[in-house]
Design goal:
about 120 residues, mainly beta, seven-stranded antiparallel β-sheet, globular
């Protein structure tokens, strides 16, 4: 899907990033998160409220941000500006804000499982 389709279908506020990996050799970036399925306009009662979601961005020419395991960075927003997908992230523990932009050729969304309480 395109970043426009991603932004139209998914609402990321309050979801928490748990891992980011960048694979420079194949220009791919993955973000794994505890995704707030309950906040989506397509959510139906009785479905799992939170799921593990993996976003794979293809065609990423460079990334110099945080990688590896992350201690639950909250997503404040994900929006499109200047044909780029911007992520605004809050590290609650250190009270630091991060802004990352990605300009992928396409995005893949994969549900990895249900987040257990």
């Amino acid at each position: 899907m395109t970043i426009q389709e991603l932004r139209e279908k998914y609402y990321f506020h309050d979801s928490c990033i748990t891992r980011i990996d960048y694979f420079s050799e194949d220009k791919r970036l993955t973000i794994t998160m505890d995704f707030c399925q309950w906040a989506q306009n397509w959510y139906k009662e009785g479905e799992p409220e939170n799921v593990w979601l993996k976003l794979t961005f293809y065609g990423i020419d460079g990334y110099d941000g945080i990688t590896g395991d992350i201690d639950y960075f909250s997503i404040l927003d994900g929006e499109i500006k200047d044909d780029k997908f911007w992520l605004f992230i809050l590290d609650d523990f250190h009270e630091e804000h991060y802004e990352y932009y990605l300009n992928p050729s396409n995005v893949e969304v994969e549900i990895l499982g249900i987040v257990e309480d």
